[in-house]
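Journal club side-thread
Mid-discussion, someone asked how the predicted structure for our own chain would compare to the paper's figures. Pasting it here so we can look after the session.
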Amino acid sequence: MLYSLTSLPISATECFDDGTCQGLFNVYPSAKLLVAVIYRPPDASHTSFTKLLDQLRCVIENLAGADYDLFITGDFNFPNIEWESLQVLSGGTSESNLSALSLLNFMSEHLLSQMVTVPTREQNILDLVLCNNDRLVSEVTAESTDISDHNMVNVLLSFDPGAVDDVQASYLDEMNFRSLDFSQADFSKLNDVFDAVNWREVRETSTFEEFPSNFTRVVLDTCLSSVPKKRPPTGKPKVYNSLRRRKSKLRTRLSAARCAGDLARIKKLEDEIGLVSYDIKEAIVQHLDHGETKAVERVKSNPKYFFSYAKSFSKVKQNITTLLNGEKELVTERKELADILQQQFCSVFSDPNCPEKSDPSFTVPPLLSNDTELVFSRNCIEEAISEIKLDSAPGPDGIPAILLKKCATSLSVPIHLLWSESMSSGIVPSFYKTGFVTPLFKKGSRCEAANYRPVTLTSHVVKVYERVVRKHMVRHLEDNNLLTDKQHGFRSNRSCLTQMLDHFDDIIEGFTRGKDTDSIY
């Protein structure tokens, strides 16, 4: 039995019942969703279960498109499957083992994951939830019930299949950097405008705390007047609009021909409309193929473009839709979700000014170089800007990386003024102490705030300053041999790979000398 929301229209329903296994398959085109409910008795034959899977396979193959999400649930009665390793254990009948292998092959064929991880009857996982997109499932629980000897399985989805997404893209706001198409910008003109700005006057007419916001406003106003605006994508190729207009005109002519009773003209116009409809379909397919090919070609050079393209087809536009609060109640309101995450992240934050902590005590080694003065010049700033990746996401100020890199020489003047004064005073403006915090899922239940870690996007202007300071500090440490040779992380020309090679070299050396090697993590 399967209950569906009235807001979800069903385009197709198929049933399977051979007297042993049973199945019900519903297709929801508005949500691009296929839901299947299956019952397999413990003594079902392999032939019966194979027939059920074959019919389900046909339903999947008949879907209009490969982007449907699959939810397959029910009582499968496979206690002999070990779900962590996806292996069939010994102890079952030959029919049961063959059926279990058929299910695992079916899952592999359709990229399905089994989401139930807790026993549903005694110590066995008999009731399954199979899904080809695990991001759609926030949490799966099982609890005892009086109406069955099986536990009741509850699946919490991370999206509402009956809801209509009416969220507008932020780039439609015409008063920020994201509304501008910097790929069409004239950076020579921008450099000339920035060179003409009296940045020292801008600094003198504002306080130290106001200068960052005034600097950002001048840059934004310049870009708004000089850089073309982005045009919201229609999702259709340019040729689609001309073909659609042609089809509309042909339909008008067809209506007139039908009123006149001109059978020959009616047949000719119907054929022309059919050909135009085919051309429209081909144009859309070619447009999609071009976008997919373009994304695949950029996997190595620009992986963010590839993942953005792939994410555009996802139903889950918001990463976190439900969380458990302190009373273990589900929360869905966005502000409450943000408050729960903020409370979690604050609870694990390590405050360097905590009075319970003290500076470590150690003997200062002799220094080979006493050059500790940090020279903060425009050349250092331009070099740091050149190291920023072109596709790096901006922080709250919105200044994109491409603007800084293309206008590095002209914008290094105000940035040098800002951070030279900050270095002298020892104060960082509050404007640059904010960032966009994005929670990234680690593992476990998606409803637990503790299973997310924060990643903060800060301004590229701050990153420039950090790069200059870091380079000077690292050079001082390396010039004085203050870093152990065992340190591989966060050092140039070193990585996890070099650390593993060094570690395996120690193991092999010990092995050849007949010595034991202990590894402690």
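Post-session note: The longest strand covers residues 22-28.
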